[in-house]
Amino acid sequence: MQLVWKQPIELDFISGDCRTVKGPSDALACLADHWPRRGPFYVAARSACRAAIDGRRTAEEARSLFISAAQEAELKTH
């Protein structure tokens, strides 16, 4: 069973692409494949998403850190 967030996150990338992220698994794929800038919140979000999948953190904690990573990377979220 795949974890999903109560509210998906839509990201607007500089390239003009828009991506909807529905949960920690989607977030990990997005962080690995599409992330423009990797900083401390990127690392924290990646770790939190893995922990949520393993049941060590909540999905919503991972969502919060993913949003922080998006802000760090100067991506628009909605």
Commentary on this structure:
- This protein is α+β, with helices and mostly antiparallel strands and 78 residues long.
- It contains three helices and three strands.
- The chain has helices at residues 24-34, 40-54, 59-72; strands at residues 9-12, 18-21, 76-77.
- It has a three-stranded antiparallel β-sheet.
- Helix 1 packs antiparallel against helix 2 (40-54) and helix 2 (40-54) runs antiparallel to helix 3.
- The mean pLDDT is 95.
| Number of helical regions | 3
Q: Can you give the mean pLDDT?
A: 95
Low-pLDDT ranges: none
Order of helices and strands: EEHHHE
> Helical proportion?
40-55%
Report the biggest beta sheet as strand number plus sense, adding barrel if it closes: 3 strands, antiparallel
Task: Give a nutshell description of this structure.
By secondary structure, this protein is of the alpha+beta class. 51% of the residues lie in helices and 13% in strands.
